[in-house]
């Protein structure tokens, strides 16, 4: 019976036969002799020992035995490979024998393991681990998860579940299995050399005196900041993408008049400018806004997914287009603002008939008629083309006059222009009407501009002057056009929802005919019982009856003040008690 020896490999205790121990010892000496020549060899030796310990543990568990024999050691060596094997392969490279040929000649195959990659993480390494498993770059897997989140939010739940169930590839052997590489000496050496080469390239010149604790803390902070910045970047990129889509839709709507009403396609805000200039200015403004947004969007995507820089000629071309578009937009904008420089107001007064009750209401002029004879179905309002433009910048006021004077209406039409004459001409083109019949006075809901007139802050103010003592009923349709009075304050005085309110013209102006309700304070209570009135507040009680008036305190039955048939008595003992 062979002698048994107890050994410790990376903290794991094994019972091994003496001849198997000698074989393993000789194998480890060869490994240490080979890898000991390189710098930082301790890490790779620990990884190799850790892998050997894992393989021994698997054999003990699968074979249900307690002692490692020579057959087990030879099988492990066969899987791991000998130093002499890849030394021979290195010498044979010049003869057409490659490292890949060596790997392909191994009799052992290893499948990939689904594990999280800690070396390529945005949040936890789930996407990079899946990328290794399915053979895709991590950036495409991340993009798929982002799309799932945006389309329905299912990507978040799937990511969290994978984060929980996927183990982390901590050791070098784990990382090799994650990539589908056999955990043998050849691949251990290759991975170690690649890792050290990358480390030297990226971190050459770093201070060796920096403690491990400080480096770890710095790594954690950098990762947290990286995750935070990338999350913000995704939100910003998504917002910019939506904004670009909205800008494109807006350009299509405004440039081509997709509104269903206008024949000439000029819609707000395009009607700020001349029709022949509006489309050029709109397209230039769209480019001036969109190009910087595209640049920011591309920069964020490039930073998140490690994309290359934009083509040099494309960048220069976009910059030139942006400069031209910005210049055109500013030029048209300045010229448009100059056309708002001067303001002119035209005043017109017209008499109205006296009425017992003045009923004020709004007449909706948006009456649509379709001409069946016209195959294009030109839409008109009150038999006029909608290109006359309807505006509702209307203010309605009611003012008092002497009761002996006749009522009248004053119209004020205002507009702007680059000079006073042009502003006056535009104001004179405003068409607005107030009509009076037996039912009352009717205010048009909108005023009209002449065909293809530009928007220049046109407004209409209508002031109705009524004699003091007049009774006025105002329809709810005028609520938002009234000025100087609160229609709502009068409306809430009614016990139910009403469509019209009643007002009186007084010396102080127009006042609601319904008086406001008086509210009793919450801390007071008034009760009437037969011929007695009791009034209670927080501190005193007041009793009024046919016998007189008594005032007492809540905490005492003594009377402070008694006013009766015998006169007035005031008790001052209460003050002394205090």
Descriptors:
578 residues, alpha+beta, six-stranded antiparallel β-sheet, 16 helices, 24 strands, PspC, membrane, cell membrane, transmembrane helix, PspC domain protein
3D architecture notes:
With 578 residues, the protein is an alpha+beta fold. The protein folds into four domains: 4-104, no CATH class; 239-338; 346-512, no CATH class; 525-577. It has helices spanning 18-35, 41-63, 70-80, 83-91, 99-104, 126-134, 138-151, 154-165, 172-178, 185-203, 212-256, 275-305, 312-338, 420-428, 487-491, 573-577; strands at 4-9, 12-17, 67-68, 342-351, 357-363, 368-370, 379-381, 384-385, 390-391, 394-401, 408-417, 434-437, 440-444, 447-448, 459-467, 471-475, 500-506, 509-512, 525-529, 532-536, 540-545, 548-553, 559-564, 567-570. A hairpin with a 2-residue loop joins strand 21 (540-545) and strand 22. The model is unreliable at 92-109, 258-268 and 377-385 (pLDDT under 50).
